[in-house]
C-alpha cells in the first residue's frame, strides 16, 4: 500500500481546483438530493465481495454517491476511515459507499484505481470527479464535496469516537497485497525473459560464436 499519487486528469470536466474560489461558482455536478425524511441513522455502507458497485448506482438518476476504494491493510486507508465514516452525517442527502479494492479488482481497473485510498464522486453510474488531496480529513472532504456539488455540510458534525470504531475499520489488519505481489512477479518474469532473449539473439549475431570459441 502506498499513498495516492497525483493521477492523470481522467475526469477533466470536474477536476479539483486547489484554491477556494469555487464557492462563488456554480456547482460542477448538479446532484439530485435524496429525501432524508424518516432516516434515523446516516451511515456508510461497505460492499462485500459478492456485491457489485453498479447495482448500487442508478444510471437513470442524477443523485450523487461518494465511493471509497480502500484496503484494510493500508495505513492511509486506516487513517482516512474515521473521517469518511462521519461524512454521511455531514451530508445526509448524499450516499456514501466503500469497497475493498483487493476484492473488486475489476472495478479498480475500470476506474483507474492504481493506489488506495481512492475516492470518486459518481452522478448516477458515471464518475464525475476524483479526490486528489493528500490531506484526507473531514474538512478537506467537506470542501471537496461542496466545491463539486454546491451542497453545504452540516456545521455541527465532527469526528467522534464511534467514527473511529466503524463501519470502515481504522485499525490495520494483516494481509497480502495481491496486486502488488502480482506486479512484482510479472516484472521479475519479464526481466528474466528479456535477459534470456538477449542471450539467444547474441549467439545469432555473426562473429559472436567465434569470440566465444576463442
Describe the structure.
There is one protein chain. The chain is of the alpha/beta class and 214 residues long. The protein has a domain at 45-163: Glutaredoxin (3-Layer(aba) Sandwich), CATH 3.40.30. The chain has six helices and five strands. The chain has helices at residues 75-90, 105-110, 138-149, 161-165, 178-204, 208-213, and strands at residues 45-47, 64-70, 95-100, 118-123, 126-131. It has a five-stranded mixed β-sheet with strand order 1-3-2-4-5, covered by helices on one side. Helix 1 (75-90) links the parallel strand 2 and strand 3. This is TXD15 protein. Residues 11-150 form the Thioredoxin domain. It holds the Pfam family Thioredoxin. The chain crosses the membrane at residues 178-196.
Give a quick set of tags describing it.
alpha/beta, 5 strands, 6 helices, five-stranded mixed beta sheet, 214 residues, elongated, 34% helix, Glutaredoxin
Any idea what the CATH superfamily of the domain at 45-163 is called? Answer: Glutaredoxin
What is the β-strand count?
Answer: 5
Major beta sheet, specifics? 5 strands, mixed
Q: Average pLDDT across residues?
A: 80
The sequence of SSEs as H and E is EEHEHEEHHHH
Shape: elongated
Helical content band: 25-40%
Layout: helices, strands, pairs:
Blueprint: E1 45-47, E2 64-70, H1 75-90, E3 95-100, H2 105-110, E4 118-123, E5 126-131, H3 138-149, H4 161-165, H5 178-204, H6 208-213
Parallel strand pairs: 1-3, 2-3
Antiparallel strand pairs: 2-4, 4-5
In short, what is this structure?
By secondary structure, the chain is α/β, with parallel strands linked by helices.
